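Table S2 (text version). Query chain:
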Amino acid sequence: MAHIPRKRFGQNFLQDQGVIAGIINAVDPQADDVVVEIGPGLAALTAPLLARVPQLNVVEIDRDIVSHLSSIYPPERLVIHNADALNFDFGALAREIAPGKRIKLVGNLPYNISTPLLFHLASFSDIIYDMHFMLQKEVVERMVAEPSTTDYGRLSIMLQYRYLMDHIIDVPPESFDPPPKVDSAVVRMVPYDVLPYPAKNEDHLRKLVLASFSQRRKTLRNNLKGIANDQVLADLGIDPSCRPENVSVAQYVALSNALAN
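Corresponding structure-token output:
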């Protein structure tokens, strides 16, 4: 298919067979797994996934690609949802195709919507077994970052609250057509069956973390002025003069729970 990549969809098509094999091996799809691919593009991952599973669901926004894939694969093998993944109800899909089972999500995500898409998918974590995504390497580094590092921030905290994550493969620009201007990486995300640090009010936690990082170079005391005083922070073992990146996920949840009371 002579498809011209569309910038508005953030299209960069994976073509490196070694990288493709590495991703498929990491996903390790079994015949009875329910797999959903986001952004199948020109079927770089779709074809090897279909070699492992009897049916694959894909979510694709580009109608030309939908038409192309429909001409290659029969509908009983490839079920195509022509939709924007940012607005797609993965929960409804799981209930329809796999009642009582959790799904495996795979995708080379458009880098221009990766962060909001990750937050959108977080609302479906109860029906997800695991996720393997290609993302901008810088984003993956932020996702898996440890406290007290420059990459650690709001994305790190809110995703690590819900998932166990591993940075598993680095992917250079020349692995794509056209080559992106950035390095890429693949991350594995596995939702916790039981949250290690459950928040009493997750919306409160989100707002607290957002406020904490409102001015990254300022102290936690300054960023949380009017929200949490020094005594509340000190009682939880948090130094009020530290910066927001020095506070662990467990400490943010403990602070949120204390304030929510």
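Notes on Table S2: The domain at 202-260 is CATH 1.10.8.100 (Helicase, Ruva Protein; domain 3). DSSP finds eleven helices and nine strands in the chain.
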